[in-house]
Design brief:
The structure is a homodimer. Chain A is α/β, with parallel strands linked by helices and about 550 residues long. Chain A has two domains: about 5-260, Aldolase class I (TIM Barrel), CATH 3.20.20.70; about 395-539, Double Stranded RNA Binding Domain (2-Layer Sandwich). Chain A has 19 helices and 16 strands. In chain A, the strands form four sheets. Chain A has an eight-stranded parallel barrel with strand order 1-2-3-4-5-6-7-8, surrounded by eight helices. In chain A, a hairpin with a 4-residue loop joins strand 15 and strand 16 (about 490-500). In chain A, helix 1 (about 25-40) packs across helix 2 (about 50-60) and helix 8 (about 185-195) packs parallel to helix 9 (about 215-225). The longest helix of chain A is centred in the N-terminal third of the chain and has 17 residues, at about 120-135. Strand 11 (about 395-410) of chain A pairs antiparallel with strand 11 of chain B, so a sheet runs across the interface.
Chain lengths: ~550, ~550
């Protein structure tokens, strides 16, 4: 039978110390529900003694009926005072949390420098505080702050801190690498010694990513005998972040045969990680291990032909185990196998033997050479493939655009666009202003089309990226524009390339709308004559 | 004495397999120069057999006179053919690179599934290819693809692959964890065994970050006896990326007493990492270990007061060792001291006590809040500080610009700009075309000024970058434009921010020219009247 590891999530407490992360009480409740579904065993909600937001969280979380133990965080009592009079400890008790995480100093240097007290008083602060919280029937996790730095400088004192906490009734002794500077082999050695010396104590591990080793340090501690992991979702946390539970859980469970959560729950990992990044409003790096959008994406040509024969050739696990999926990227480095598998994804039958297929592959490679990049522009690629396959019908024809940006000293800049397109027999000419040149073009083009294709009202541009391609030539060099659009159901991306940023944007804009109209029909002319005329007059 | 570790950078080859990373030949040359200054020992430039861009890189990099060994990547010869007739091997030789990285299969499963050949033929492919490249006097790094998976499945065969490569003359045997699925303790055990079994062979390590363990796996291999590290800057690479040299180098050198590069070079690490992220146009995560903007940022109140007493309380190394710096997020102190130290760099005396200094610091902070970034725009910052100091003289006054982009179906796009400025008592109105809108504006503005300030003929724009700031709002969101300009002596950078890409570009353009004119005087009106009139007629 596998050894069980207890998962202690501190996204809502230590995670919020990360730069740019700020969660309302509502956000915290949503995340707590999601973490509970994932199956973590402890949810550290915040610091009841610090602010009103956390007090509200602790009150409301009790109504959710979660399985996870809700945990409140706080420090040992102040020096020279008593535990039952300490306002912070009181608020931990009043929070209604089932468990308390009590942080105390274990590095003598910190006792002197940060607390400015004696080593003995620090031990008393720890013992008193734990005894008090245990009297109040809370489960107690003792966080030994800076444990590894403390142990390296003064092992006797660091261990005496753990012994004091254990004697006072702490249920877990968590060894914290607070500054993130410890290496995996050091963690392994130190935790192994403690496992032997502190027989009967349950050890936990809390690491930070300052050396890009937080996950490895956690695994080392578990291999050396620790049985609880503190970490955050997506590795949120101060400086370089905390240990990332999204990597630790699958490493422990899928690769090292420890038991953390159920297989069904681990299948929710990707979804949970992305949900939390949405709530926290933090962009998730595409290359994030296990749960990132590129974690199982394949770009190189040789790789792709092997992957299509057998996924194990270039994948260390099945992406579905963590709820992620395989993606085949198309790029200049890739051969025709990428393009063919992309076509297959789109249910397009392309025969690699026939002349048209060779032509379209040649065309795509040529476009990539000119600076187009289809790995971020699936919709533009799909349009090209459907055109090549003869199954694309043009629903509007471009005639001209003009774009004017004007600024006079002391006045705001003005952007206007004038667009002429033909739909069936009609020529439509529209004008619009905008917040910037691309917005003006978008407004004018949409104004021309929306009377004929009302579904366009539901779509909007959701992302806009510009990349200068050959920087040697500065303002005369090429730019690539990527536009992401969305409607109520889905999201798609298109690309445009030109020496002229306005023309490149226009190209991506037009592709976005062509894609949105896939599957629609040219309007019946007579039906629309009146509304067109109206459109021109109204706008 | 410390053991030396050889650093093999593959940012330009394996790094470009990362999603969203695409480098031109020019970009690659700039990065190669910077990597060489950092002191890496090998720079793998690309795959000469794959595309024209890489062939161009290998040709041009020879003229740079770098210290690092330039390395070309390629696969073993095709099955059933001979090495000297293999086009890819030929192109590796013709590239002019000093060293070759030859990748071969070491996992029997891959020999059958991906190569579809016999185990014996695979060994012959490896031996023949190495022998051929060694005859051509190249240093040879043999990349044993999927070595760890191979070793776990069929250790005898995996080791026989290494023996064959060694016997054929390979200088380095690099063990690749291609799928990124191996754990640090497995790496340690396997590499330890190989170090013992393959006495006399030099081992290298190449890991991927699929389990968030690439850095730890690399350290494990070094501790077990490997002496070369393959990795990429910022961990760029396919899926979850390659091993991140920006974390590995300081871990090995500052914490484990191995010798990689000099202390001065490691002091350039942050700067190099950020430069490469700019060239690759990939956003660097703020929480990136060692080199990220938040790597030494402190937010928590208790932390900050302790940090102010002694940095070691919450910092695992001195940030300056890797060229980074401490930031106190809650404190105004950090911002102000940065600006004051910048002013000092420019020989500007700003007194932190006086009201004007407080005003300019407030203004800069406000601009940063709006999206300006002066880290990459020294010249714009200098203009602000000189203005605040009352030592800036405006040599031309903006009155208006108009910018028109026009395209008709079937014709090329046309960009025109109309600029009105005042110089002394004269109002100058010019018109110009350009390759794109910014080029047209640049041409028109220059046309207006160059008759008065002929030194402007010597300057030109050398780089142009656009970044979308708030992607939530798509085309109505803000953009930041960075322009780099140069003349015969120097290079300077300026910034503009607006919801309108044209206005942001104009702002950066105007700053660039204002900076170029620093120290010049308004022309004597009478002298210039004639040439102005001529100027207007001529252009």
């Amino acid at each position: 039978m596998s050894t069980s590891i207890s998962i202690f999530d501190t996204t809502l407490r230590d995670g919020t110390q990360g730069e740019g992360i700020s969660l309302s009480a509502d956000d915290k409740l949503k995340i707590a529900k999601k973490l509970d579904e994932l199956g973590v065993h402890y949810i550290e909600g915040g610091i009841p003694g610090s602010n009103g937001k956390d007090i509200e969280f602790f009150k409301r979380v009790q109504t959710l009926g979660l399985n996870a133990k809700i945990t409140a965080f706080g420090s040992t009592r102040r020096k020279g005072s008593s535990a039952h009079e300490d306002a912070n400890l009181q608020r931990m008790v009043e929070s209604g949390a089932q468990a308390a995480t009590l942080v105390g100093k274990s590095w003598d240097f910190h006792v002197h420098t940060a607390l400015q007290t004696t080593l003995e008083e620090n031990l008393a602060m720890i013992s008193d505080s734990i005894a008090y919280l245990k009297q109040q029937h809370m489960e107690l996790i003792f966080d030994a702050e800076h444990f590894f730095d403390g142990y390296k400088n003064n092992p006797e004192y660091a261990v005496s801190v753990l012994r004091a906490a254990h004697a006072a009734g702490a249920d877990w002794l968590t060894l914290c690498d607070t500054n993130g500077g410890t290496l995996p082999h050091e963690v392994y050695e130190i935790v192994s010694r403690l496992t032997a010396e502190l027989d009967g104590a349950s050890l936990g591990i809390h690491t930070h990513n300052d050396c890009e080793l937080a996950v490895a340090n956690t695994l080392s501690a578990i291999q050396a005998g620790a049985r609880q992991v503190q970490g955050t979702m997506n590795g949120y946390g101060e400086r370089c972040g905390n240990a990332n539970l999204c990597s630790i859980i699958p490493n422990l469970q899928l690769k090292m045969d420890y038991a953390c959560i159920t297989s069904e729950q681990i299948g929710q990992l990707t979804n949970t990680a992305r949900y939390i990044s949405e709530i926290a409003n933090v962009h998730m790096p595409v290359n994030q291990p296990y749960v990132g959008n590129a974690a199982f994406a394949h770009k190189g040509g040789i790789h792709v032909s092997a992957i299509l024969r057998d996924s194990r050739t270039y994948e260390h696990i099945e992406p579905e185990q963590v709820g992620n999926k395989q993606r085949i990227l198309v790029s200049e480095l890739a051969g025709q196998s990428n393009i063919l598998s992309k076509a297959k994804e789109m249910n397009l039958e392309l025969n690699p033997e026939n002349e048209e297929t060779r032509q379209i592959i040649g065309k795509i490679k040529d476009l990539e050479h000119q600076g187009y990049q289809f790995e971020g522009a699936d919709a533009s690629l799909e349009l090209l493939l459907r055109e090549a396959n003869g199954e694309f019908k043009e629903l509007f024809v471009f005639e001209s655009f003009k774009m004017l940006v004007e600024k006079n000293a002391g006045s705001a800049v003005v952007s206007e666009a004038f667009v002429k397109v033909r739909i069936g027999g009609e020529s439509i000419y529209t004008a619009a202003e905008g917040n910037g040149p691309v917005n003006a073009l978008d407004n004018a083009l949409r104004k021309a089309l929306v009377e004929y294709y009302p579904s366009l009202r539901e779509m909007h541009l959701s992302d806009y990226k510009v990349r200068v391609l050959d920087e040697a030539d500065a303002t005369a060099s090429k730019v690539r524009v990527l536009i992401e659009s969305q409607n109520l159901q889905t999201t798609w991306s298109t690309v445009g390339v030109s020496a002229n940023v306005i023309e490149a944007s226009w190209e991506a804009l037009v592709d976005s709308i062509r894609y949105a109209l896939l599957g629609q029909q040219l309007p019946d002319q007579s039906d629309h004559q009146e509304s067109t005329a109206q459109g021109i007059v109204n706008h």
